[in-house]
Amino acid sequence: MIDDNINYEYIIRYIRRTLKPQVGLIAELEEFAAENSVPISQPETIKLLELLIKIGNVKSILEVGTAIGYSAIRMAGAGAEHIDTIEINHDAAAFAEKSIKRAGFEDRIRIFEGDAREVLKELDRSYDLIFIDAAKAQYNEFFKHCMRMLKPGGILFSDNILYKGMTATDELVQHRKITIVKRLRRYVDMLCTHSELETDILPLGDGVAISVKGR
Ligand SMILES: C[S@@+](CC[C@H](N)C(=O)[O-])C[C@H]1O[C@@H](n2cnc3c(N)ncnc32)[C@H](O)[C@@H]1O
Fold this sequence. Notes:
By secondary structure, this protein is of the alpha/beta class. The chain is 42% helix and 20% strand. The protein is built from 8 helices and 7 strands. Helix 3 runs parallel beside helix 4 and helix 6 packs parallel to helix 7. The mean pLDDT is 97. The site of S-adenosylmethionine has 19 residues, from helix 4, strand 2 and helix 6.
């Protein structure tokens, strides 16, 4: 295993070679993210989201964690017609707004700037899919609002839940990450035992939980 990846590097490289290279604005955002250490979705993770949007005919999405707007733009490109996305960092939100305009998606993607723990309380739409991709220690706090706004039959997509493998084994846990890891473990347990959800954990990217809410 190389660095922090949860999968073998040769597997990741092989899968990434199968994905079509991005062009234009998307390629530019990927380059910007790599050069400036902005954590955006991994290629195989965003591809899975795009496929779920297409397979499930997903039209409305709530995203927690916009960063520079990369995933929101890709999800709109996959067919989502309405995306509400929340970002706490002002510079990231401003950058995302410009990128979304450049993509021509300003009528489909709405950015809410602020702490999702507060912003979520104010939202009351219902969504076909909710993508949680912000501070890992806060997933439990986002969850109850996400459940309230997720439509029956809707998909809850939680990213980074294996957290470089630390969620799965104490052997990898870095001491300063212990609180985050404990909270992520609690989050995963809750998803997997929740009476209204069916959940699968995939070792894709940094670990993804896909949950479907009962109808
Ligand atoms: C992994 S990045 C999101 C990447 C984005 N979804 C993508 O794939 O292009 C996580 C983002 O969540 C934001 N964030 C962290 N905690 C947050 C919170 N409580 N409320 C809103 N945004 C938060 C961070 O500032 C960061 O930009």
